[in-house]
Amino acid sequence: MEEYRHLFPDLEEGLQRELQEKGRILAVKAGQILLQSGQNIRNTMIVLDGLIKLYRENDEGNEFFMYHLHPGDGCALSLICDRSFKVSSVTAKAVTDSVVLVVPLEQTENWMRQYRTWYHFVVGTYRRRYEELLETIDHIAFQNMDERLEFYLRRHRAALHTNVLEITNTQIAQELNSSREVISRLMKKLAEDGKVRLLKSGIEILKL
Amino acid sequence: MEEYRHLFPDLEEGLQRELQEKGRILAVKAGQILLQSGQNIRNTMIVLDGLIKLYRENDEGNEFFMYHLHPGDGCALSLICDRSFKVSSVTAKAVTDSVVLVVPLEQTENWMRQYRTWYHFVVGTYRRRYEELLETIDHIAFQNMDERLEFYLRRHRAALHTNVLEITNTQIAQELNSSREVISRLMKKLAEDGKVRLLKSGIEILKL
DNA sequence: CGTCCTGCGTGACAAATATCACAGGATAGC
DNA sequence: GCTATCCTGTGATATTTGTCACGCAGGACG
């Protein structure tokens, strides 16, 4: 935990110690699921290293990408769970190998009243996630697939800090709730426009 | 304020008094805008009477309905604003004549640490709005217009406690970010299926 | 009464997206 | 090398939704 302190510069000293004492550090492999839709929430999760993606699933197995969690980010849902409502409605999956800090909900509820900086952390987290969800809604509601695809690529470039995304059209189609063929065609157009280059195992983003 | 106490049965005595002392009661007419997209947030708003709708707007003037606030509901966005981020990204408009309690943000931040029940109120509010947003996303992402229209009608019936919605197809089209003609056709089909009856100034919901 | 406005209904058409069918290329395992 | 598997590209076609053009009905108001 000591090595992750820099992620939480705003948390006060006592809280830093408590995080260390009460939290359990969990390493997860890429692809592993941290929180399953429908599962009960008993712990708050904070990402320490790696990248986690959150997505919504429906009954027919369709899924829909919501947003990423980066080191220092807390999982909004699990941050403010209270006793009355504890079922998760989203799925969290590790994109890369990741490290997560897990804290029992009983702790965090105390912290909320005890530490002003924890309150700010939670509030800030929720606010950002909420805004990000709104942005997502904007895109589904107002934009066409081509624009949404570009946004998807930009977002993933930013999240992974790389211009080369090792990702298949099939995966993209799933996360945008579209179909592989559509993504394939749009991607071809992006390539023609010189915005991306199609590599044999991935996509290089040139200018977006 | 005294007359609205029953809306907050869970808030502790001292907090009830503070709400009364520090809050300002505001009456708004149907159609009036309470919170404009892009506007700064300085106050927390809690609905005491009437019905408020929240919607998202984009640059081209398209809008998109998000959810309703009923008496007893707080505006999630304004509840957890902190100093760092104060611009609203949604618009709030009174659907019917309404009454709203307005409390300066400085107050509510104190309450958060002072009153456990306030903390629960905020957490519960945020949680519900978040879930509602997710539900909305589900509908745009996974469903066709006909299903979304039915959902829209059910939601509004529940919010207004009536089977007769006095609303034009044009309005519905706007809130679903569709077009009048599409809604017109779908509505006709709903009528043929016996699910609604088209009145001369509105829609009667029969079985949905 | 005319005329202006707003909302509705509808046919024809266009655009976006989904689906189906099929073929080829790469690769891992035997 | 053979085969199974996964990903891709692409044409043909269906479905859904949006857009355009038009006419009609009713209410407000001079």
Short synopsis of the structure:
By secondary structure, the first copy, chain A, is an alpha+beta fold. The first copy, chain A, has helices at 13-22, 76-79, 105-114, 116-142, 145-160, 169-175, 180-192, and strands at 24-28, 33-35, 43-49, 52-57, 63-69, 91-94, 98-104, 164-165, 196-199, 202-205.
Report on the architecture of this protein.
The structure is a homodimer of 208-residue chains. With 208 residues, chain A is an alpha+beta fold. Chain A contains 7 helices and 10 strands. In chain A, strand 9 and strand 10 (202-205) form a beta hairpin. The longest helix of chain A is centred in the middle third of the chain and has 27 residues, at 116-142. The radius of gyration of chain A is 18 Å and the shape is elongated. The relative contact order of chain A is 0.14. The A-B interface holds A 56, 58, 60, 62, 64, 66, 76-77, 80-82, 84-85, 89-90, 112-113, 116, 119-120, 123-124, 126-127, 129-131, 133-134, 136-138, 140-142, 177 and B 56, 58, 60, 62, 64, 66, 76-77, 80-82, 84-85, 89-90, 112-113, 116, 119-120, 123-124, 126-127, 129-131, 133-134, 136-138, 140-142, 177.
